[in-house]
Amino acid sequence: MPIAPTSRTRVAYIAESAFGTTPSTPTFLEIRRTSGNLRTRKTTAVSEEIRLDRNVRAEYQLAQDVEGSYDFELTYGSYDDILEAAVGGAWNTNVLVNGSVEKSLTFEETIDVGGGSFAYHRFTGVEVDSLSLNFTARRGVTGSVTLQGKQEALDTAIISGATYTAPNTNVIETANSVASLAVASLSPVPIVRSLSLNIANNLRRHEVLGSLYTNSFGSGQLDVTGTLEAYFTSNALYQAVLDHGTGALALTIGSVTAKKYTISLPVIQFLDGAKRLGGKNDDVMVSIPFRAVADSAPKSISITRAVA
After folding, report:
1. Is the dihedral of CA 11, 15, 19, 21 positive or negative?
2. How many domains is the chain built from?
3. In the predicted model, what is the mean pLDDT of the chain?
4. Whether 192 contacts 249, CB under 8 Å
């Protein structure tokens, strides 16, 4: 019996019109990824019943919850639907602003088990709990999306009428493709070595009597956070930390005209930053965590695509 290799797997998704229901004759879109998977986390409990013979009476099942994550290298257009679900918004003339729109997806993981046979794992009612992006000098831009879902079902055949759209072949972006990075209110302009961003929806499960599975999700406060690591050039950056100052962060990423993103956080609050002196052959660095807060619109984050 052949052993299934990771190199012969596919992950694809489709948006749901109703939570937990895969559209009929779906057109799945394959995602580009580097690792990760979804799984069912089964919750059980041991019976507390006491027996004369000291044996366990039973272990009963309480719940089944879908969870997991996928890691990826940033490529233009590969995660636009996922970005919508992450910020609770919808693309409008190539601009995405955070909102309160809930979006659920069906994910399907396909495993080639050899001999022309395949195993299909379908996860319904999947929502984005968080999404992160990491920019580090001289490295590829990487990300991760953390997901929660309702239910997993196994199959040995595709859904009747299902079709699959191959992922795009756009170039993998690197930190060298950061066309601009600005932190308003800071002077001089910081010399940045790395930047991380995280968007969290703080999902909570709605649990109901009579079902092992999540009924729906409640979305909590949208929390956009990150960390800026810069070289120490003066007191200005660290003074902004001590002053509990604010700024505005914006960056453009992309190496191909009209296939770039601009990510904007109109107001960020500088949090518990610290300078780091390091060892004898190190540079002095300043590491500053920050949180995006609402501007007058109000919004915390906006993303523009198709930037020239």
Report:
1. negative
2. 1
3. 96
4. no
